[in-house]
Amino acid sequence: MNLQRTIASWKQMTPLLRKELLEAWRDRRALVMAVSFALLFPAMMAGGTIFMAKKHSEEITRVALLGSEHAPLIEHQLQSPDMEVEPLDSGDPRTLLGGDYDLVLQVTEDFSQRYQAFRAPRLYLYVNSTDTGSGRAQRDLQERLGALQQMVITQRLTARGVAPQVLAPWQLETRDISTPSSRGALILATVPGLLILTLFVASLATSVDTSAGERERLSLETLLLQPLPPWQVITAKTLAVASIGWLGALMAIAALVALMPIMPLAEFGIQQATTAGGIIAMGLVLLPLALLIAVLQILLALRSQSFKDAQTQLSIFQIAPLVLLMVIDAAQIKLADSWQLLPLIGQQQWIKGLLVGDWVSPVWMLAGSGVTLLLVAVSVMLGARALGRESLLSAA
Q: Which residues cross the membrane (predicted)?
């Protein structure tokens, strides 16, 4: 009996749903906004990755070496494909750093005498700390000078019959155990937040128009006079708004996957691990969230005083969740599995895992999606009660 009543209710809502979908999909402004943002961030991410890889591959440290005639071996030992050492007869370090050089290394005139006398001659390294690339160049040069210094120490000890191991009680070797998936998570960490932001941006215009916009045009009052339960009105509007938002998210996923082959991820040690099943799963886990975002946007717009007020409130509303996700990523907080039950956080964790090929628990995905759908149902009921108040129509 209850099933038949439910089917009858949905059949009764079909004309209203058709009307809401037609109005939503005929709004060119909303469609342009959804499509533009959905294609914009994958293109920007691909361009940024290509630029970073190109800059990384072309990043050569240029070192001006003053007084190279006093220490010719230093120039030979420092030369490498990613470090260009140019000996100069003279020059002012400040002027050289202001030109084409990243670092200036000066060898003192008494270097040879002090070196042969084991008196530790000095080397002067000039850097410009205001230059963003000087820190990397300085660390690179210091590592090379440190390796050269260790080689000289070893040779001196060996020449005097002293085993170098006597002065080195242990040897420390750093081994990176990170996997391509974990390295990929660092670069692709922003993708889940941007996909979620796409849901907000793509559905914003439609949600404002179907709520505050209809109230100002007085068409909402006409709709409420029809013999339809308020929950059907909210549900139809939610489905129409969510369809636009979900379309934007699906287009963003498709664009991102299509651009991945041209992104130089291999240069960062990342393997493309996104599978067809992972792509489908990403789209499915975003569907309940699209419904929740749509109904919350509609409720917030209905509570606003005007159409412009609704646009302002929803613009602020879409930034807050993104900031929350960015803070969690930046702080590198280790979340327990139970956090996947929370909307936004659960979808962020699942999409991040699916992007880099990590295993994502279907149980937690289903449980978290169920919680999101439950919140959608609660929000629909709250919206239905709001539609029953006369103050709603006089909010403008």
A: 185-208, 239-259, 279-302, 314-333, 363-384
On whether both 186 and 66 belong to a single domain, the answer is: no
| Distance between CA atoms of residues 234 and 295, nearest Å | 8
Element (H, E) at 62: strand 61-66
Neighbour order of strands in the sheet with 83-88 = 83-88, 61-66, 103-107, 123-126
Separation of alpha carbons 338 and 115, rounded Å: 63
pLDDT in tens, 111-154: 888 888 878 888 888 888 877 667 777 888 888 888 888 888 88
Whether 42 and 109 map to the same domain: the answer is no
Residue closest to 18 by CA, chosen among 240, 191, 199, 180:
240
**Are 78 and 99 contained in the same domain?**
yes
List Cα–Cα distances, 143 to 119, 128, 165, in angstroms: 22, 18, 21
**C-beta of residue 212 within 8 angstroms of C-beta of residue 306:** yes
Q: How far apart are CA 208 and CA 87, in angstroms?
A: 66
